[in-house]
Amino acid sequence: MIRTTALLAVLALTLTGCATTARYDAAGDVHALLVAIRDNDRAAFDRYVDRRALKNNLESRVMREVGRREMDDSARALAAIVAPGLAEVAVEALLRPEAFRAAASYYGYTPDQPLPGRVAIGAALRYRDDGSVCATKKKDGPCLLVFARQGDVWKLSGFEGDLADLRGKPGSKR
């Protein structure tokens, strides 16, 4: 019994260590992405964004939104035909630094304030069971931005916040 408890404790500490290491490792790339967004640096933005994963994520979200709209059967059929193309156009418009700058501004990262450092970002990231990390607005809040490791770079691979946040809020700085 004691041996099993000790083994479980060691395993828990090991897993916690992996989660902490992943969060702080990801924090450097998250910081670099924030700098790219702030500076409107498209090349750096693209380096830290998994376009395919983020596009799939956003397209499925847009399609779900279309599916939730109240429509009659003929409108729903038309939406099913045109929505994928519209979703692709909408997603391409969102996959730009300036779209994410609106979201960053809404969440408190404004151009007139310094970006948090790697330690602060690492502390704000949450490790997920699939090996990704996510950023939240509040400590126990829902995930907003999801980052997955690809080789030696952590890339933005999902957005779980409100899609309207990518367009900015009325009165927000852009």
Question: How is this structure best described in words?
Answer:
Helix content is 58%, strand content 13%. It is an alpha+beta fold and 174 residues long. The protein starts with a helix and ends in a 15-residue tail after the last strand. The protein has one domain. A hairpin with a 2-residue loop joins strand 3 and strand 4 (153-159). The chain contains six helices and four strands. It has helices at 2-39, 42-47, 51-68, 73-94, 97-106, 118-124, and strands at residues 125-127, 133-136, 143-150, 153-159. The model is unreliable at 4-18 and 169-174 (pLDDT under 50). It has a four-stranded antiparallel β-sheet.
By secondary-structure content and strand pairing, the structural class works out as alpha+beta
Order of helices and strands: HHHHHHEEEE
Our Rg estimate from Cα atoms comes to 19 Å
- Biggest sheet strand order reads 1-2-3-4
Please give the number of β-strands: 4
What is the count of helical runs? 6
Structural topology:
Elements: H1 2-39, H2 42-47, H3 51-68, H4 73-94, H5 97-106, H6 118-124, E1 125-127, E2 133-136, E3 143-150, E4 153-159
Antiparallel strand pairs: 1-2, 2-3, 3-4
